Amino acid sequence: MVVGSRALFLLAFTLVATELQAIEDQRPPFLRGPVLHHSYPADADNPDDLLTGGLGASGLQIAVPPGFTDPLNPTASELRRRAIHQNYRALVDVAANGGYGTLYGPTVGPGGTTLPNDGRIAGDEYLGYASDGRSRENVTVMVQVPATFDPRRPCIVAAPSSGSRGVYGAIGTAGEWGLKHGCAVAYTDKGTGNGAHDLQNDTVNLIRGTRASAAEAAQRSNFTAALSRDELAAFNAATPDRFAFKHAHSRRNPEREWGEDVLDAVRFAFFILNEKYEPRHQRRKDGRPAINRANTIVIASSVSNGGGASLAAAERDREGWIDGVAVSEPNVQLARDRRLRIVRGGQEIEDFARPLYDYFTIANLYQPCAALAQPASPGLGLITSLDRAANRCAALHMNRLLDGITLDEQAAAALAALRAAGWEAESNLLHASHYALAVPAVAVTYANAYGRFSVTDNICGFSFGATDAAGTPVPAAPANVAKIFADGNGIPPTGGINIINNQSAGGPRLDALSVSDSTRLADFNFDGALCLRALATAKAPTTNAPLDGDDRRDAVRVRNGIEHVLRDADLNGKPAIIVHGRSDTLIPVNHTSRPYYGTNKLREAGSRLRYYEVTNAQHFDAFIDNPVLPGYDSALVPLHYYFLQAMDMMYAHLKNGAPLAPSQVVHTVPRGGTPGAAPPITAANVPPISSTPPAGDLILFRGGTLQIPD
């Protein structure tokens, strides 16, 4: 039966938010505070909707996000619309040449049909906080119920946010698929989200994105840093104009509870659906809700961190909340099983199944230098200005972390170090853009999260705040802070808040422009990268000597935090699909999907997991037709297209018993042409996952060895 007892709502369905007031205590025990409800007719009089925020498919294509009547005081509805626009575009390539509107997108219905009303979807949206008051603090949960939901044939899609995004962070991936198939969608920000605490002004986000003082918000805050009044005053005096972020500074290592967060979102969905379609007083005498686990298809889904969260939920689920899993490019970490071997095309992979923080701190050290070995890299210009990438090569060499005398030799050695650490050759072209746009942010945030450090610790000398054109910390623009719920992704640099190197020679400065004290070079803060790496290894990277004192204690904290997020790859017999791009440079296949699949085969008798590895696909579909990154379009295809196929296959399997295609490598064909002006994608570029692939494309597991064809 559905967890706990149910609440009878006072149903006042209006176009403005209404609190669903629970009678007595009949509600899931993890819910804290009121549940907010909005109805979106998506008609001519009120075009706002569940999927596009009223913008429609065409509005999502417009690069300029929707604005605000008063930029200093945006309304909750305005913030929601902008958040949907920003989150959708962050995960999906919205260029027509890339397949938007033909292969995927709001107007592309099941079976390739064209959906009306520019893809807008009417329905109801319910928003609340989940918290146990101790280990988890105000995790946002949301349920969207499309008007096409059929309570006689119910289905639910779990859609935890990707990355560190807020609750709309899976709207364009699992959310869209679920809504277009008439399923309720159970979202969660999984304890990360856009919890941005402006420490100087002591303001925070509320659940719908508007700002309030921390005192006024109290338990309604999305996140407030755990500081006393005296601690806050002292920190502001020493380091003014800084921010704390929920993922980094909640001191709770939220990833540890991602599986439970997804399960709570699913439980919340069952609760909402039964109150909507069969209120408690109308239920059968046996008390069993009409919409229950026995008659409802539940697919745990999403991409990246959201995909990892859904796998964690399936592992934790011993009660049957989840029927199947379909995820893409999951951030999933597990301890390496020494029985497992991975072979690609006859060549054994030596380095695999590193934890995320381990391989990210390697990337953070070597990527700026390694990128110089690939002069055609998209986005190379983002890291070569002011000779900072060359200076990183010099810093690595002078610290005996890199061989080579010439710059070319050093760059080649740095690239070889990444290859030896588990990156595939298909990632070579993408190191520059990934370093410039993602890697330092992840390394800094996860160091704080895993070590459960306070914002006042300024671990490795890093802090978050706004900077001016010279890189000097300055007060954040009030308009940027007001809209950070919509524009931010939960992990600086984001929404006008940047990474600051407090220990830069000459004083605090924007991390990318800072000068390392040890080298006196503008080298992308080599000292900070060394410090972050030491937290992963508990050794000094330059000497390999064990750390001692406070440094060792900090490293132990980080390593303990990592241990708490490792998964066991036992999916409790559930059918599951993982789709991953071979060129993924952010979440490499050798450290995530490949070893997870192999470990599952070792540990789960009768494994029902399938793995589809897609060539010429990588982590950031939104980069493919980005004019700043010419070359992505001509070399890469959208992985999102294959995620949708995986969802279709899992749904057909659970609904009709259709067999899942065998594990395989899907060989795609890049669009080619001139970088930045690639021709439109066609079906020939993206062949489907095959139910009967050629023998040479099959991914096989035999005798503890995972065999991946070229």
Structure, briefly:
With 710 residues, the protein is α/β, with parallel strands linked by helices. It folds into three domains: 18-194 and 254-296, no CATH class; 356-563, no CATH class; 574-708, no CATH class.
List the helices and strands and how they pair.
Layout: E1 18-20, E2 31-40, H1 56-61, H2 76-91, E3 123-130, E4 139-146, E5 155-160, H3 171-180, E6 184-188, E7 196-198, E8 203-205, E9 211-213, H4 214-217, H5 229-238, E10 242-245, H6 246-249, H7 258-277, E11 297-300, H8 305-316, E12 324-328, E13 341-344, E14 347-349, H9 356-370, H10 381-384, H11 388-398, H12 407-420, H13 431-437, H14 439-451, E15 462-467, E16 473-474, H15 478-482, H16 484-487, E17 498-501, E18 509-510, H17 526-537, H18 549-563, E19 576-581, H19 593-603, E20 609-614, H20 632-635, H21 640-656, E21 664-666, E22 700-702, E23 705-708
Parallel strand pairs: 5-6, 5-11, 11-12, 12-19, 13-23, 19-20, 20-21
Antiparallel strand pairs: 1-2, 2-3, 3-4, 4-6, 7-10, 8-9, 10-15, 13-14, 15-16, 15-17, 17-18, 22-23
Helix pairs in contact: 7-8, 9-11, 9-12, 9-13, 9-14, 9-17, 11-12, 14-18, 17-18
